[in-house]
Write a structure and sequence with these properties.
The structure is a single chain. By secondary structure, the chain is an alpha/beta fold. It has a five-stranded mixed sheet, with helices on both faces. It has a four-stranded mixed sheet with strand order 1-2-4-3, with helices on both faces. The N terminus is likely disordered. It has nine helices and eleven strands. It has one domain: Aminopeptidase, CATH 3.40.630. The structure holds zinc ion.
Length: about 270
């Protein structure tokens, strides 16, 4: 009985903690807690309906993607792992009395994790190791090697970064192989992929899309990890608040993924069976 009450209390706490309501009726949730110094990262997996696509959101201040994913899985089934650590973009924490900060999308290689921390101050081996450990647990939970893909969701601000950033002469030119722009779309709303055939399918669907260069520098980001491990990678990224467009791009990207890799659709359907 006591055990039951405790687990019930834990459930309530988790629900109160979850930052992405409304969780609709029938949604299943489980949480994995990762601790590094005084940093707590909760990997909250939301799951609903028949097995289908699995999404991943690694920045905790980017909620539009999570909300759009909820809409998607409410109608089509699927799951999302949402990394929750206080609603901010960066990991900020104290370790052995020292303060550190890093971008959670820089921890997927040793070199990248070090460079990521050094953007904000001095790093040390132990902290780099802790970041690698967080990445390892996120990857274990999301399990891209079993899924056969990585499908991430990001959001950005109005102006600044967007599809034009990947054009010749702009800041992300070096990481770009090809760019397709639909000038009817908001330049902040786009898809980034690592595989040519995904790029071609999304270009055919006439959405803003970037193919990442195979020689892009290792900055510890998940897209570089994906390419290195030969896992097809999709990032659907829209401006904060563009939820309808976010859902539209998710639907187009899921369709492109299953068209390019038909066996993945069967695998996703068979998951949990
Ligand atoms: Zn992001």
């Amino acid at each position: 009985m006591m055990k039951y009450i405790l687990s019930l209390m834990l459930c309530c706490c988790l629900n109160a903690f979850a930052q992405h309501p409304p969780v609709f009726e029938g949604m299943e949730m489980d949480t994995t807690l990762i601790v590094a110094g005084d940093l707590n990262v909760n990997l909250v997996r939301y799951k609903y309906g028949k097995p289908s696509i699995s999404f991943l959101a690694i920045h905790d201040d980017e909620d539009t993607g999570v909300k759009a994913a909820f809409e998607y899985i409410q109608f089509s089934g699927g799951s999302i792992i949402d990394c929750q650590y206080g609603g901010k973009r960066n990991y900020k924490f104290t370790y052995n009395g020292q303060q550190y900060q890093t971008d959670p999308n820089s921890i997927y290689s040793k070199e990248g994790a070090k460079i990521g921390i050094e953007k904000f101050g001095p790093s040390n081996n132990e902290v780099v190791h802790q970041m690698e450990n967080i990445a390892r647990i996120i990857l274990n939970q999301y399990n891209p090697k079993k899924l056969g893909y990585i499908f991430t969701l990001h959001n950005n601000a109005d102006g600044g970064f967007g599809i034009p950033s990947y054009l010749k002469g702009y800041e992300l030119e070096k990481v770009t192989d090809s760019v397709h722009i639909n000038f009817q779309m908001d330049p902040d709303d786009m898809v980034l992929v690592t595989e040519k055939k995904l790029y071609n399918a999304l270009k055919k669907a006439n959405v803003n899309v970037v193919l990442q260069h195979t020689e892009a520098d290792d900055d510890g980001s998940l897209s570089i990890y994906a390419k290195r491990n030969q896992i097809p990678y999709i990032n659907v990224e829209v401006q904060h608040g563009h939820q309808e467009e976010n859902l539209r791009l998710i639907e187009i990207a899921v369709k492109a993924l299953y068209e390019c890799y038909p066996n993945l659709k069967e695998k996703d359907k068979a998951a949990n069976e």
